[in-house]
Amino acid sequence: MKIDHIELREIEMPLVHFFETSFGRTTVRRIVLVRVDSEGLTGWGEVACGQEPFYNYETPETAWHILRDFLIPWTLGKGWTTAADVAARFHPIRGHNMAKAALEAALWDIEAQTKQLPLWKLIGGSMTEIPCGVSIGIQNSVEELLDKIQRELTAGYLRIKVKIKPGWDVEVIDRIRQRHPRLALMADANSAYSLEDLALFRTLDRFFLMMVEQPLGWDDILDHARLQREIATPVCLDESIHSADDARKALDAGACKIINIKLGRVGGYASARKIHDTCRERRVPVWCGGMLESGIGRAHNIALSTLPGFTLPGDVSASQRYWQEDIIEPEVAVTPQGTIRAPETPGLGFAPRLDRIEKLTRRREEFG
Ligand code: OSB
Ligand code: MG
After folding, report:
1. Whole-number Å distance between alpha carbons of 256 and 312
2. Is the confidence at residue 78, as pLDDT, over 90?
3. pLDDT digits (tens, 9 = 90+) for 109-137
């Protein structure tokens, strides 16, 4: 794989509906796309970070900088045997996993096309259909949330995740449980609590949640281990896990029983697969999280979700839940059974719509 040309683009896409977490409300997404050209083939990746450094420290601006000044110069003009070799080359840079993952993912896309394989098969995926859940943000009222849940269940989704924060937690979960006693339900706090809230998490045990996601510090493992010892609800870690080493340490410490794997957060497919393997050896279930991705990041999430350890429904759902019009063809659609079928064509399996991407572009830079 000789890398001839790389292009960065920042696009702006308004969400169909605002998405609110404990750290804030998002109405428009600013997304950095990476396009790589290699010997007549083109691969695409997406930087998953938010516009502000609230989920993690990366922003479109930091990703652009790390890509332009380090990752792209290290990649351009060189002949790489595999995308995994490129991932190893990125290792010296501390962090900035979402910037790394976007470029790495584009190279996996190219490698899969070279080998005439769907990307999901190249990475070792085995599920031809993935089970889907939805993540529903904080709403203006509990009634609106209940309506949304009903709509998603009617569409076929297999589990519901709701966001919680202080003031929008026990009462809300109680109302959902009264309406849906047997629903596969979970809650994501995005680090909104501390160990001082232990009583609240003990109360949540009453609602038989599948898991509570990242209740404590965004970079914490030890407090989560203390919490997990005190409650019955499984803790799932998201923000705290960046590598297979993090996963091993968290599991050894008893900090969680489930791990959410996001391609961006962990730095790409090579790292995601290692985390997946670490968890699988220990029979710890994993699932694929989301970052309100455009079709390109969404297509990569589908590929990742086909690995055999992704046994729980993820946050990967239909394009139309996010966008009036997505930037890929076909758009991501969900079956009435609440699954997404893995594509059969080589590479990513969804074609970027260049005309649409061009219209949404706010800045662009070319290299090589
Ligand atoms: O914590 O999983 C999260 C969105 C933005 C930032 C963090 C998270 C989320 C989601 C949405 O939960 C998942 C999705 O629908 O893409
Ligand atoms: Mg989360």
Report:
1. 15
2. no
3. 999 999 999 999 999 999 999 999 999 99
Q: CA–CA separation, 359 vs 368, rounded Å?
A: 24
Ligand 1 atom closest to the Cα of residue 161 is: 12
Nearest CA to ligand 1 atom 1: 190
Same domain, 126 and 258: yes
Rounded distance, CA 48 to CA 63, Å?
Answer: 10
**Proximal ligand: closest to the CA of 157:** 1
Q: Which ligand is nearest to the CA of 289?
A: 1
In terms of residue numbers, what domain contains 207? Answer: 121-341
Closest CA to 88 of 274, 250, 259: 274
Distance from the alpha carbon of residue 353 to the mean position of ligand 2, in angstroms: 29
CATH code for the domain of 59: 3.30.390.10
Our count of domains for the chain comes to: 2
3-state secondary structure (DSSP) of residue 164: coil
- Tens of pLDDT, residue by residue over 16-50, are 999 999 999 999 999 999 999 999 999 999 999 99
Residues 277 and 154 placed together within one structural domain of the fold: yes
Nearest by Cα to 65 from 365, 281, 340, 270: 365
Question: Is position 90 within any domain?
Answer: yes
| 347 within some domain | no
One domain for residues 15 and 159: no
* pLDDT one-digit tens code per residue, 342-362: 999 999 999 999 999 999 999
- In terms of pTM, does the model score above 0.85? yes
188 CA to centre of ligand 2 in angstroms: 6
| Mutation probe of ligand 1 site: the residue of 29, 135, 286 with most atoms within 8 A of C-beta | 135
